[in-house]
Please model this.
Amino acid sequence: GAGVSQSPSNKVTEKGKDVELRCDPISGHTALYWYRQSLGQGLEFLIYFQGNSAPDKSGLPSDRFSAERTGGSVSTLTIQRTQQEDSAVYLCASSLGQGAKWGLNYGYTFGSGTRLTVV
Amino acid sequence: KNEVEQSPQNLTAQEGEFITINCSYSVGISALHWLQQHPGGGIVSLFMLSSGKKKHGRLIATINIQEKHSSLHITASHPRDSAVYICAVRHSGGSNYKLTFGKGTLLTVNP
Model:
């Protein structure tokens, strides 16, 4: 697609329920990232995918959080047994690759985010 | 101490003023990003810098690698520039895919 698409844009859920957040990256972007922005906080890294593999899951805050990516494209972030502290904007970004050579970096394209509210 | 520090945290300006937002970082980086986030909106990437200076319209971004410092300038500011501006660095080395973000600068431009 033309941009990174996230759905839903807003989600209100009851504490204890499971939620799934979806990210559809730009076609051909091999790298996909999930970030979280809690109220009054900066953005924090959650997980990184290269293709369907997740070399770095270090930012997932607990084992209630999981993510997968299929076909090197769509990714789903799942939060089980949601808690109020999970309320945040969840942002997805994608990039062509993750080449780190100076001057050969790939830009990121961010989605509009999913605003999750746990009540 | 945060790896990425932005200043000021909040900035209010009158339409037409020249704006400067600063970003300092303490880690080795491969690139620095300036991002814009409107209230309730997603994030738009404004610049990605690895050296020198870039200009898009009224926006100018500079980076000094030796001093580990970057600035975002807005010339002839306009109320539609009101947003949160976020500095983010891409680490060098093994974690080069990861961005570390500053806490953002809330800019309000009054007519």
